[in-house]
Amino acid sequence: EGHGHLFLTPFREGEIWDGQTSPPRQHGFYPFDESEFILPGVFGIGEDPLPKNMRTTLTVDEWTKAAKKLRDEMLLPGGNINPEWIKKQEGRNNF
Length: 95
Known about the structure:
Strands 1-2 form a two-stranded antiparallel ribbon. The radius of gyration is 19 Å and the shape is elongated. The protein is built from 3 helices and 2 strands; from the N terminus they run ββααα. It is α+β, with helices and mostly antiparallel strands and 95 residues long.
């Protein structure tokens, strides 16, 4: 009892997120117990595991920059797919 999981994202309100330059943050489902919420929330001890300014999606600007970066990596001048990019994708779980 008193255990569960939360889905955390690295995105924060008022910040532009960039996977290459932003500080590393937890992303995904993480196990927590009640004390990890009670101690910072009630007694001010430790860091709150659920940031108040966390958001769950990219902004339009972040999506646009990410799409441009992917397009630049994926396509050669003239619009053909870069074979080196295809090689890097082999074996990755893209689902």
